[in-house]
Structures are given as C-alpha cells and as structure tokens.
Design a protein that fits this description.
heterodimer, A: 238 residues, alpha/beta, Rossmann fold, five-stranded antiparallel sheet, five-stranded parallel sheet, 25% strand, disordered N terminus, B: 416 residues, alpha+beta, 2 domains, ten-stranded mixed sheet, two-stranded antiparallel sheet, 13 helices, 54% helix, elongated, membrane (chain B), transmembrane (chain B), cell membrane (chain B)
Chain lengths: 238, 416
C-alpha cells in the first residue's frame, strides 16, 4: 500500500515513452522522463506544431506509445485496453480545448453534465449533477439562466471557455489538462479566466497542466516547462 | 438519457436537412403502406362484391372473364346463353334459386342490367348483406328501373324521373321510343351495383323487339304495343345460382360445363377470384417492389445526408472523446440518429397516409368503385414501420462506422 501511495503522489509520470505516428509525414516523439506531482500547477510552453497535441493525447490515453510507461494517478495506462483507457480518462481527467469546446446545439448545462455520463465515479461524487453544475457555473461567473436555457452556440467565446472549465471540473477529476484555453480571449479576459481556473483547481486540490505558446501566462504557475526540454521530436518530410 | 437528448437536439439543430430527409422517408413510407392499403382494399372490395352465390353460369369463356363481366361489369360477354339452356339449368333438382342477368345496354355511362325480381332477394354482398332500398321500391311495371346509389347521386335522379336507355355501351343510338321510369333507388353498397341501372329481363326484350341486326327498325313498335307481346328473352348474358346443398356444387358445375346443347361455363366465384389474384398478383408484386425501392432510396438518401455532415462534426466527436466517450459511443450516437430520423419519417408517413386516405377515399370510391376502409393502423403497419426503422438503423451503420474510424484516427485532435 505504501508503494502505491508514494506512486500516487505523482499526478503524471512518463518514463521511457516512445511514440511513432505511421501516417505521412512521419513523426516520432520520445520522452525520457516527466513527473508532475499531484496538486502542482504546470505551465508547458509549446509552439503549435511542437508536438504538444501528441503529448497531451498520450497523457489522455488517446494515442498509444510503442514503449514506455505513462502513469496517471499512479496507474499505468499503456497496457489498458481501449475501452478501459476511455473510462479511465473520463474518471481522472478534465480537458479544456483552445476553442469550440462545446456541443453547440444544446445548453451549457448539458455540456457541463456530459462527462458524468461516462464517469460513474465522478457521478457518485456529485449526486445532484445539475446543482453541482450550476454551482460551478456560478463560481465561474455564469448566471444560472444562461447556463440552463441558452444554446452553447449563442454564448460568447469567454463564456464558452468558462463552461468548458465547469465541464472539466465537474465531479472533481484529479487532473485538468488545458490546451491553449486562453488563446481565443483578449488580454483582460485571459487574466480573469486564469483567475477563475486557478481558484477552482486549487479549491479542488487538482493538478493542472496547461499548454500554451504564450510565455506571459507562465508566471503564476508552480512550475514552468518547455516542451523542447522534455520531448525529443523527430520529423521526416515526405 | 442525456445521449438521446443530445441526439435529438443535434438533429433539431440541423432541422432543414434533417426535415427534408424525414419528409422523403415519410413520402416513401406513405407510398409503400398506401400501395398495400389499396391492394388489400381492392381485394376485400372485390371479395365483398359477391357473396352467397354458389355458381355463375355463362357462355364458354375464361373463368376470370365471366366473373369480371357478370359481377364487376368489367369487359363484355362475347357470347350469350340461350334462354332454353337457362331454363333447363333452372329446372335441375340441385338448383335452389337462379337469377338471370342480361347486359349490353347503358345509360349515360352506367351499365343497364336486365334481371328478374328475385335478384333483389338473392344478391348478397359484404358477408351476406342484402340490397336495400333508399327510396321507392322494386320493379313493378315493365318500364320501371331501380338505380344504384351512385347513379342516383351522379345524375341527380329522384323517384319518377324518366330514363332513356342507350343501345350498347358507347353509342348514340337511344331507345328513346320506350322511356323508363325510376321506381326505386338502392342504398349504397360499395359494389358495382351502385353504378348499375337495373331493369326487368322482359324490358330488355321489349326495347329490342323491333330491332334488326343492331339497328332501329323503320317502323318501330310503340311502348304500349310491346306490352301485349311475348317478352321471354331469346338469350341472357349470365346467371347466378344457389344450390340446395353445397355438396352438389361440383357435380352441377361439371354437368353445366359438359352441357350438350351449347358450350357453357360454370364457375365458383371464390375460385375465379383466386385466379384473378394470381393474374393481378404479378402487377401487385411489381407495385410493392417499386414502393419498397422508393423506401430504400429514401433511407440511402438519409445515409448520404449523415455522411455529408460527418466532416463538419469532427469537433463534436473530439469533444465526446475528450470527456471519455468510447469510439463505440460515437458509433451508437450516429446509429441512434439514423434510427430517430427513420422513426420520425415512418410515423410522419403514417400520418400522411391517413390524411391521404381521408382526402382520396370518396374520390377513389367514385372513380374506381374501390371502397378503402379507414381502419386504425394495425399489426401490419406496426411491423412494417418496425422493419423500416430497423433498416434505417442498419443503413445508418455505414456513416456510423465511418465516424467511428474518424474518431479513432482523430482522437481529441481536431482538424478544421
């Protein structure tokens, strides 16, 4: 038990990971070691095309490495079967994209509730899903009427991103991954957005891994990494 | 349930393309079920036209042909039965009753039928119902007629109105020297009787007595003069008869078919109807086949529509994947979508069918004498709607598999 306790103190642990994409152009990535302790907020600097999408896909268990270990909350996801990995991602990870995070044809509320459909553990943690969704939305500055009645497509970009945060946070997954979540926002909105995100993540004690090309965002994070330092990317033009 | 709600909302957000697809499926389903309704309607309508008659006797011809011209007033007799032969058959001990029929003349597009007074007592339709009078009574005077409900309605006849019978079915020669009088109007039956002008057999003889070789004589007999003459006919078109015991039907039929004096044909109406269905069956199958193809086309159109939308929905699939949905969920969502479209189409089709039936029923009845019963959708419709919805789901499998592959390849990366 003690061993797994210590292992679990790392929210993310990657070691000896080698990934190759067989399509054209050929593309490979290897990560010798990356450890993110639980509860840490990590800024990962990466230009677009630096391989950050691949790295995030590996952490989320959407892409499979050829070798190596990828542990999330102490569990190696590499040997898992596809369905188990999807389920694991649903339970453990909340994801925020750059933009267009939401299903446009339904309400913000439905969008926030969606992960609970695939994550029974998270559902158990908030039996009143609707109440929890509205609470999160309120904490993120979204009025209940807007969340319940307005179609996601009708929300402003800033509002959409905050709904995406609520969706990532509902049911308290321990790892939040954000891929350029502020790049569609203006400078003021960026700061406000990050304030809200940090507040919620810290309240939950979750780990935050945020990827961005914008170094100005980096200062408030516990730790700053450059993707070029942790990942070795090979690329062949065809 | 959230997935079903999302599928419905997603469809609703694309309501124009989805609506068109649903409408196409609805039309095809209405056509398919409509063809079946007309088919069964025609069958029952035909089967209901004659009831309680054991044998129909006519000159030797095809069984179906005899049935068609004697009962349904479709086509013409090529030959007649001699009155002597008729009387010989009538005298047979097996015969319980016999009613002669004489066709050939018309009145403003409606066929005129000469028969005996017993016709009104013996003719049965729709499971044994007898003819009833809406107004007036039966044939009493020589120049009395009883007209069917449609004749009365279409021509606006009342009791006592005069009627002039035309010679033949489409001629300008009128028996205008011997006008008839409307003595009775029958109740609606939903059979060819509604479109028939019934006169006595003697009246048919009377209006033709002074005719020679199919044209009017130069010195016609007056209407009063013919009353004094012998009006027994030389020949009739056909006869309907009932036997005392059904066990005797086949022997009587064989005897009539081997009748010595002239070539005759006796048919069992039910058997002749079966023969008719066999002939018509090919056309029916073709109709059913074509309408099934139309349904298939509409379902393929739906698959094409879903296919066409897949690329724009990669973002949506990536979102589903990011919250932990397995690719199988994407597959299921798209099949659910196809099922919902097919279901909506099938149900709307049913609505269209019944709307169409309500609107077209009186017209079909008037134009084709085809009575389409307005029955609630039953097991037949339910099972076909089930089949169509399942087929929709199956067709939806193709775009669903494509989406499944796309979501496997894309993962959470979204290409715009």
């Amino acid at each position: 038990m003690a061993a797994s306790e210590t292992e679990a103190t790392n929210a993310i642990l990657m070691s000896g990971v080698k990934f190759a994409w067989s399509g054209a152009p050929r593309f490979g990535m290897s990560i010798a070691e990356l450890a993110v302790p639980a509860g840490q907020t990590v800024f990962l600097l990466g230009e677009s095309g630096s391989g950050k999408s691949t790295l995030l896909s590996l952490i989320c268990g959407i892409n499979q490495p050829e070798e190596g270990r990828i542990e999330i909350a102490g569990q190696d996801i590499v040997p898992m079967k596809g369905a188990a990995r999807d389920r694991f991602r649903a339970e453990q990870i909340g994801v925020i994209f750059q933009m267009f995070n939401l299903l446009p044809y339904t309400t913000a509320l439905d969008n926030i509730l969606l992960p609970l459909r695939f994550a029974p553990e998270r559902r158990r943690r908030c039996p009143d899903g609707r109440g929890e969704a509205l609470r999160l939305a309120k904490a993120l500055g979204l009025p209940a009427a807007l969340v319940e009645r307005t179609q996601a497509a009708a929300l402003s970009t800033g509002q959409q991103q905050r709904v995406a945060v609520a969706r990532a946070l509902i049911g308290q997954p321990q790892l939040i991954i954000a891929d350029e979540p502020t790049s569609a926002l203006d400078a003021n909105a960026q700061a406000a957005f990050l304030d809200l995100l940090f507040e919620q993540v810290q309240q939950m004690g979750a780990t935050l891994l945020l990827v961005s090309h914008d170094i100005r965002l980096a200062e408030r994070f516990d730790r700053r990494l450059d993707i070029l330092d942790i990942a070795d990317v090979r690329r062949e033009a065809t | 349930m959230i997935l079903l709600r999302l599928a419905i909302r997603s469809l609703f957000s694309r309501r124009f393309t989805v609506g068109l697809t649903v409408f196409a499926i609805a039309l095809s389903v209405a056509l398919f079920l409509g063809v079946e309704k007309v088919r069964t309607g025609a069958r029952t309508s035909f089967a209901d036209t004659i009831s309680g008659t054991d044998l129909i006797v006519g000159a030797r011809t095809g069984g179906v042909q005899l049935l068609l011209y004697s009962v349904f007033r479709i086509g013409n007799a090529t030959n007649n039965i001699g009155w002597d032969s008729y009387q010989q058959i009538a005298a047979r001990p097996e015969v319980d009753w016999i009613v002669p029929i004489s066709l050939g003349d018309s009145h403003r597009g409606f066929r005129v039928m000469g028969t005996s007074a017993e016709y009104f007592a013996r003719y049965r339709y729709r499971g044994g119902r007898s003819l009833g009078f809406a107004e007036g009574a039966g044939l009493e005077d020589l120049f009395d007629t009883v007209i069917g409900a449609d004749v009365a309605r279409d021509l606006g006849y009342r009791i006592g109105d005069p009627i002039v019978v035309s010679h033949g079915l489409a001629s300008f020669t009128e028996h205008d020297d011997k006008p008839f009088r409307v003595a009775g109007i029958l109740q609606k039956t939903g059979t060819p009787v509604d479109r028939t002008v019934i006169v006595s057999l003697e009246a048919i003889s009377a209006i033709h007595l002074d005719w020679k070789d199919g044209s009017k004589s130069a010195n016609p007999l007056s209407a009063d003069a013919v009353r004094a003459l012998d009006l027994a006919p030389d020949s009739i078109t056909a006869a309907m008869l009932g036997v005392k015991s059904r066990m005797q039907v086949f022997r009587l039929q064989r005897d009539i078919n081997e009748f010595g004096a002239e070539p005759l044909l006796a048919i069992l109406p039910g058997v002749a109807l079966q023969e008719l269905w066999q002939i018509v069956g090919v056309a029916e199958s073709a109709l059913v086949g074509v309408s099934a193809m139309v349904v298939t086309t509409a379902l393929l159109g739906m698959a094409a529509m879903i296919f066409a939308g897949l690329n724009e929905r990669r973002r949506e699939m990536a979102i589903f994947r990011s919250v932990g949905a397995r690719p199988r969920v994407i597959l299921g969502m798209l099949m659910l979508e196809a099922l919902l479209i097919a279901l909506a189409g099938a149900l709307l089709g049913l609505v269209l069918l019944y709307l169409g039936l309500v609107v077209a029923r009186p017209w079909v009845d008037a134009a084709f004498g085809l009575y389409l019963p307005l029955t609630a959708p039953g097991r037949f419709e339910a099972s076909w709607i089930g089949v169509i919805v399942l087929a929709g789901g199956l067709v939806g499998l193709f775009p669903a598999i494509r989406a499944y592959r796309m979501s496997l390849a894309d993962g959470m990366t979204v290409r715009n």
